[in-house]
Amino acid sequence: MGEEPLPAPKAAFNNIATWDLLEDLPVAVYTCDKHGYVTSFNKAAVKLWGKTLEANKDKWYINWQIFNIDGTPLNLEETPTARVLKYGKAVKQQEILIKRPNGSISYILSNPKPLFDESGQLTGVVNTLIDITEQKNAEAKQGMLASIIESSEDAIVSKNLDGIITSWNNAAQRLFGYTDEEIIGKHITTLIPEDRYDEEELIISKIRANERIEHFETIRKTKSGEEIQISLTISPIMNKANKVIGASKIIRDIGKQKKAEDRLQQYAERLEILNSIGQVISAELDIQSILQKVTDSTTQLCGAQFGAFFHNLVNEQGESYMLFTLSGAPREAFEKFGMPRNTAVFHPTFSGEGTVRVDDITKDPRYGKNAPHFGKPAGHLPVVSYLAVPVRGKSGEVIGGLFFGHEQPARFTKEHEQLVLAVAAQASVALDNAKLYEDIKQLNEKKDEFIGLASHELKTPVTSLKGYLQIIARNLPAEDRNKLLANRALEQVSKLTTLISDLLDVTKIQTGKLPFTYADYDIIKSITDLREILQQTESSHQIILNYPLERLIIHADSQRIEQVIINLVTNAVKYSPKGDRVIITGAVINNKLRISVQDFGIGIQPDQLERVFSRFYRVENLASHMSGLGIGLYICQEIVNRHQGRLWVESTYGEGSTFYFELPLNTPTN
Ligand code: ADP
Asked: What is the DSSP string of 196-263?
């Protein structure tokens, strides 16, 4: 059927030439008779219908679903062609939507006109159908782009190469205050502060060269004349021939962002200042130094001319007194007037009511209320701007106040107040620590005093006891059983004597009064003799002396060096309950005598190695038979140090320890 020649064009068109012309037209054309049966159609119509209709058999709408342009269905009787058939009048360019059986949709511009015969009777319709789908899609896209631009948060503006503004969105209106009527057609310099006109030349030259400008931060002027911080991104606009014809600008208000950045920067700086002040004051344990550092740093921080820190303290007798430090003013300036009195101005600070920040204290109602000065005493520092912050202790009680002054009004801001408050908080922690440290120091001193006193008092009766026991033991015959008991008692009294004299030594070390008597003597002989004696008392272990030399004269306090060796050997035995030997080794290394005492006992954990030399320090959880006071090694270290020597330990936990000490062979006396 499709191969048949197109049906009877002559029925509607009066000559072949016209029909030939229509046949190849890119616009669909068809005719139908007065009943709606198609009578002729061209190629474009076949394409548009999506199939070939049969002339005089198919009606013009055969293939489609037809809709209004808004998508609502269109009744057949209301379609343009039907209306022409019904009323005999042309319909001009009605837009309709058609849907083909394969689902494809097209926008169609329908142009049906009536056909009449010579007698004026309606014979049918000729219709041209134009497919406007592409155009419609482009319009929709345009519309979407326009609404994106309109709803953008950023101002979007375009201008031509002469700098004339050609478009202006809502955000631009919000940012600059001009409506599009007011600004479109005006020159872009309307928005540029005069001192920045050069920028425009630079921008235009870049745009002409087809270059983009990104995130260019600058200042622009609003309708009200306010200067605002913005970031500009500018792109060239090209015409179809790729020629630059203008520029589009995206303008972002970065005022808020800048402010946030500045704030952040300010916070960071503030944090840094506070940190460094915090570090400085927390490293101090001396109250007066803390007060001074806090006063100096806060005075500087808030730009005050003078600053003062008054600190209430209570002494041992329970009396309160006040320390104070100053910055920026000589002490005499304050001392003349004594401590701040409980005046109306100072009251809120010392009572802890809160911060007082006044631009002009001389105009403050609290000022000048109290006799006798009524205002600041004559000769007082010239304070106009005034800032005072209470400083609180751990439990919230006011322990003092920070006061700042400046002779100019309105010098102190909220920012200053916050900084001072932050330092005040740090100061109170540091002061609490210093106070604790002070208390501990005092308690320690009391304890030392007590130990010194107690051991001194114990020493005389124990010495007498030892004397009487010696007489008793000596006077008893060898076979008397009581002699054994008396000797045992003597051994215990000896231990007690050693303990008491160790405690006395500690006290003497503390007060720097441990006496030394230096002399030349043969240390080899001394150690050899000592080993004999120690072997008798420490019979559980074999005490081995490992020394190649016969004789070595050193200049030292022989009693004290023996005391060191006895201490190390008794420890070696005490802390190696499962061991059976202790090795004393001597060697001369680099002109130093090195003695070591090695055991095969419990050993010492690495983190304890240094601490065992501290006063009263004992490793935790020692077995109950390993009793002691934790002062032996402390005394040993003092003795060795006083000989310009060195004492240290190497140990493997669970395997044993070796204590070493070194003495220089040319020890100077001291
Ligand atoms: P004391 O032995 O009276 O406790 P010292 O000052 O002599 O006091 O020793 C301090 C601590 O060091 C001891 O309590 C113990 O924990 C540890 N110590 C000392 N010598 C040894 C050793 N040879 N082996 C293991 N631990 C030791």
From this structure: GHHHHHHHHHHHHTT--EEEEEEEEE-TTS-EEEEEEEEEEEE-TTS-EEEEEEEEEE-HHHHHHHHH
CA pair distance 253, 228, nearest whole angstrom: 7
Mean pLDDT on 1-6: 40
Q: Which of 544, 513, 576, 554 is nearest to 662 (CA)?
A: 554
- Whether pTM exceeds 0.85: no
Dihedral, CA atoms, 541, 545, 546, 550, nearest 10 degrees? -170
- Calculate how far, in angstroms, residue 590's C-alpha sits from the geometric centre of ligand 1: 29
pLDDT tens figures, 9-56: 444 555 556 667 788 888 899 999 999 899 988 888 888 888 888 888
Distance CA 377, CA 383 (A): 11
Taking a C-beta distance cutoff of 8 angstroms, is the pair 217, 229 a contact?
Answer: yes
Q: What is the DSSP string of 489-526?
A: HHHHHHHHHHHHHHHHHHHHHHTT------EEEEHHHH
Specify the residue for token string 């908080």: 425
Report the SS3 class of residue 649.
Answer: strand
pLDDT tens column, 387-411: 999 998 888 888 889 999 999 999 9
> What distance lies between CA 463 and its chain's CA centroid?
66
Question: From atom 23 of ligand 1, which residue's Cα is the shortest distance away?
Answer: 572
| Pocket lined around ligand 1, Cβ cut-off 6 Å | 571-572, 575, 599, 601-604, 612, 617-619, 622, 628-634, 657
- Neighbouring-strand partners of residue 187: 164
Q: Could you tell me the two tokens for 35?
A: 């009943």
3-state secondary structure labels for all residues of 327-393 = ECCCCHHHHCCCCCCCCCCCHHHHCCCCCEEECCHHHCCCCCCCCCCCCCCCCCCCCCEEEEEEEEC
